[in-house]
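Final report, Chapter 2: Outcomes

The project's central promise was a pipeline that accepts a single protein chain and returns its three-dimensional structure in a standardized token representation, suitable for archiving and comparison. That pipeline is now operational. To close this chapter, we reproduce one record exactly as it appears in the project archive, with the input sequence first and the structure output second.
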Amino acid sequence: MNYRFRTQPRQVHLIDLPILGFVIVTLMVWMAPFWSFADLFRQVWPVWMAGALALSISTFLLRAPRRILVSGLAFLILVPAIGPVFFVERGENWNSNDRGQDVSFATHNLWGRNRAHDLTADVLIGMDADILALQESGIRTRSIHQALANHYANEVTCNRAPVRIFSRLPVTESGCLRDILDENRSAGEPLWRWDFPAAVWARIELPDGETFVVISVHFTWPNPLSSQNEERINFAEIAQMFDQESLVILGDFNAATPSSALSRFDRDLIPVRRTQSMPTWPSQGRWTNEAGNTVAIPTMFAGIDHIYAGERWITGTVEVGPNTGSDHRPVFSRMIFLEAESAN
């Protein structure tokens, strides 16, 4: 008697579906330096990392098949963040021997759909920053500007962009950064040279008579990344017209660790980034304003609001502020502007 044996079909497990999804995510994370669309996956890296760790732990607890594969995927998603998180240049930190001027800064994207204007103004006033840089600061947020104007002696605006700077310290010069680009652009240059972020600058005078330039900037979304690339290139070129050792750049960069987009900002800007993996978006204000539901727990997972400062600035503190009703959280920093002899 002849027997015929049939090969049993391979069993498909429910766990295979999320594993397949994380295989695709892992490929995208590793293709980020070469493909702008894939870099969007790195922008939300904490989401994938949390999901990969949860899936890895679950597969081991349930003794599910392919748990080694899941752990390998989690490791591969982790690796691209090691360098940007742990080995990026951070600038000097304050110590008791540093002599200079103590200046506090804050940056905040007010968000055009923000409805909690009173809350926003109260939080920003309570942060008590010497210099306040704002983005998405237009007609819709006028009541916030009016409240802030009662607490700041100087307000710098740009009629070409919804960005502004409030300062308690004297302002000696100011203007739209785009105007500098237009003045230095020659005829016949390619169209990409017209790509420029919303940006305003001000020269601030310290009590000892020294000055420094501060810029409030808002870069476009990283999709399409090519547009953000051109904005970054043009901005970095114009920013070099100011003294780099004393320059401070604050704003919404729409680029988060460990994206290739943020690494390009770190490469092209001479001042050093002082914000390190500090999530600022999306804050509870996004859900409260758009869905009408009050969210009690912090919901941020992407740090896209940053502070860059030149070599004469020593970092004291950098922290993320509370919910303001915006979809962003404000960022606050206290820094020391070194005396000239201490900086050399």
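Archive annotation: The domain at 100-343 is CATH 3.60.10.10 (Deoxyribonuclease I; Chain A).
This record, like all others produced under the grant, will remain available to the consortium after the project formally closes.
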